[in-house]
């Protein structure tokens, strides 16, 4: 076994002959498990049923599909050795971060080795003058912002969950601050990636963190949003931003969805530099009032936040209030104190759990379409009608400044007919978004459930090109199989 392990590290790949029995998923040979232990140490390898189950699902409604074994590497060298070992034995590789995804991205549809990267949790390099930081895959969003707080900087991409930053890069995550600060695609400067063969790639060159380049293909962009299907991200160089001098949040209710979206468009067209502008429908507002002890109107509502100097904020607030009132806003209230703002945005981030509480015992499924902002009223109204016709329970929230919204559906996972209706609704909504020149996913990714919609979105040539890229980097199709393509 030791000689085989050395050969893996030296040559990168074995000819096909497995340690594991590939005839039946879930059966690993003792030699293969011992080879994994030789790389990371016995305490960092587990085949316990409870551990496998924990790593076989995320927060989506996709059923649990556990891996055959879970390993916890401690450094990039071990990740490289693990990848080469698994690839040489035709063993599927599933990267795992915090497990907060919403599209089944960690489900081990063919079994295999789950590589949990959370033990690699160092902040490797901070460059305040260059507004950049290098993090390992176990570093989460909140941990990074705590670390850089005293430097006057912050990382603003906020998907709600305290997700791992490299996992956020892998899924192309975004969130409530996107309208001002962009998505992960806009904030990743470089990636360190272990390719399936075990080779180490630096997508922008080793140690580089420039703001712009015209050198060659955009390899960083290729791996952001690749959902673990092309390699394992073992470090990310991220763009930091100056922490705002002051922040103010606001809420305002509207007589209709159309009025709320028209206000959003008006604010953006007036070049008001809003940092967050979130839409919550009447069902969501009712749920948040109950769950988070708010006292807001049960009506289509915008949550807004502005960043800047005290003087600039006064101007922004005045202009935003004028625009929203022109479109019929009522119950307009500002939250200037940190405690008030925290309560407001905690309620927004907990909207998922607030909606789940409307039907205890059920699971949630979140759609994730994104359309041109001008088409939002049309698709939101139609979605409400479709939801009523389907007989499903659900609510709508959205990053309305980006044209991205989520319909959160409540489903009994034991009710096959209801699960079928949920998936049918999701695909219908995805096709409505495509018909309006939008996308089937704004930030959650393709994962298991949207592969057909991806084909409809990018077309035959687009899919062929993606398959060619996949075949070049992962010719055996072992990196997170069954996802995206």
What can you tell me about this protein's structure?
With 485 residues, the chain is an alpha+beta fold. It has helices at residues 2-11, 30-40, 49-54, 76-88, 141-148, 165-171, 178-181, 184-187, 219-223, 257-269, 282-292, 310-326, 338-349, 351-356, 376-390, 416-435, 451-473, and strands at 45-46, 69-71, 93-96, 113-116, 123-127, 132-135, 153-154, 188-194, 200-202, 232-239, 241-242, 246-253, 274-280, 301-308, 330-335, 363-366, 393-399, 404-411. The strands form 4 sheets. The protein has a 7-stranded antiparallel β-sheet, with helices on both faces. Strands 5-6-10-8-9 form a 5-stranded antiparallel β-sheet. Helix 10 (257-269) runs antiparallel to helix 15 (376-390). The longest helix has 23 residues, at 451-473.
> What percentage of the residues does DSSP assign to strands (E)?
15-25%
Task: Give Rg in angstroms.
Answer: 23 Å
Q: What oligomeric state is this? A: single chain
* Largest beta-sheet details: 7 strands, antiparallel
Structural class: alpha+beta
The best one-word shape is: globular
How do the strands and helices of this protein lay out in sequence?
Elements: H1 2-11, H2 30-40, E1 45-46, H3 49-54, E2 69-71, H4 76-88, E3 93-96, E4 113-116, E5 123-127, E6 132-135, H5 141-148, E7 153-154, H6 165-171, H7 178-181, H8 184-187, E8 188-194, E9 200-202, H9 219-223, E10 232-239, E11 241-242, E12 246-253, H10 257-269, E13 274-280, H11 282-292, E14 301-308, H12 310-326, E15 330-335, H13 338-349, H14 351-356, E16 363-366, H15 376-390, E17 393-399, E18 404-411, H16 416-435, H17 451-473
Parallel strand pairs: 2-4, 3-4
Antiparallel strand pairs: 1-2, 5-6, 6-10, 7-11, 8-9, 8-10, 12-14, 12-15, 13-14, 13-17, 16-18, 17-18
């Amino acid at each position: 076994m030791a000689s085989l392990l050395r050969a893996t590290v030296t040559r990168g790949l074995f000819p096909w002959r497995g340690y594991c029995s590939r005839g039946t998923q879930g059966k690993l040979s003792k030699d293969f498990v011992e080879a994994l232990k030789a790389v990371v140490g016995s305490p960092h390898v587990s085949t316990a049923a409870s551990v496998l189950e924990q790593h076989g699902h995320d927060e989506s409604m996709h059923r649990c599909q556990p891996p055959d074994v879970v390993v916890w590497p401690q450094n990039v060298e071990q990740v490289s050795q693990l990848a080469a070992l698994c690839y040489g034995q035709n063993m599927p590789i599933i990267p795992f971060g915090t497990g907060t995804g919403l599209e089944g991205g960690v489900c081990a549809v063919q079994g295999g080795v789950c590589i949990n990267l959370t033990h690699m949790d160092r902040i490797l390099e901070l460059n305040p003058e260059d507004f950049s930081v290098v993090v390992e895959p176990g570093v989460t969003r909140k941990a990074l912002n705590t670390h850089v707080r005293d430097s006057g900087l912050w990382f603003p991409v906020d998907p709600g969950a305290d997700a791992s930053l490299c996992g956020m890069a892998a899924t192309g995550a975004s969130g409530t601050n996107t309208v001002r600060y962009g998505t992960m695609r806009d904030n990743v400067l470089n990636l360190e990636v272990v390719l399936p063969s075990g080779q180490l790639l630096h997508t922008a060159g080793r140690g580089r963190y420039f703001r712009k380049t015209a050198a060659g293909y955009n390899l960083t962009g290729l791996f952001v949003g690749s959902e673990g299907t092309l390699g394992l991200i073992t470090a990310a160089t991220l763009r930091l931003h100056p922490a705002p001098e002051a922040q103010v949040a606001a809420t305002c209710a509207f007589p209709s969805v159309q009025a709320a979206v028209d206000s959003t468009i008006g604010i953006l067209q007036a070049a008001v530099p809003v940092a967050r502008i979130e839409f919550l429908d009447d069902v969501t507002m009712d749920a948040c009032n109950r769950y988070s002890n708010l006292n807001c109107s049960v009506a289509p509502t915008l949550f807004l936040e502005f960043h800047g100097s005290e003087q600039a904020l006064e101007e922004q607030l005045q202009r935003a209030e004028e625009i929203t009132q022109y479109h019929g806003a009522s119950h307009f209230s500002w939250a200037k104190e940190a405690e008030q703002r925290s309560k407001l945005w905690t309620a927004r981030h907990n909207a998922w759990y607030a909606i789940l509480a409307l039907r205890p015992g059920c699971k949630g499924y979140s759609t994730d379409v994104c359309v041109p902002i001008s088409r939002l009223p049309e698709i939101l109204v139609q979605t409400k009608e479709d939801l009523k016709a389907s007989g499903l329970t659900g609510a709508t929230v959205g990053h309305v400044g980006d044209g991205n919204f989520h319909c959160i559906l409540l489903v009994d996972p034991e009710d096959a007919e209801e699960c079928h209706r949920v998936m049918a609704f999701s695909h219908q909504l995805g096709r409505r978004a495509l018909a309006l020149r939008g996308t089937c996913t704004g930030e959650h990714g393709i994962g298991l459930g949207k592969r057909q919609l991806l084909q409809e979105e990018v077309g035959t040539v687009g899919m062929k090109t993606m398959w060619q890229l996949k075949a070049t980097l992962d010719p055996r199709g072992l990196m997170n199989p069954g996802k995206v393509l």
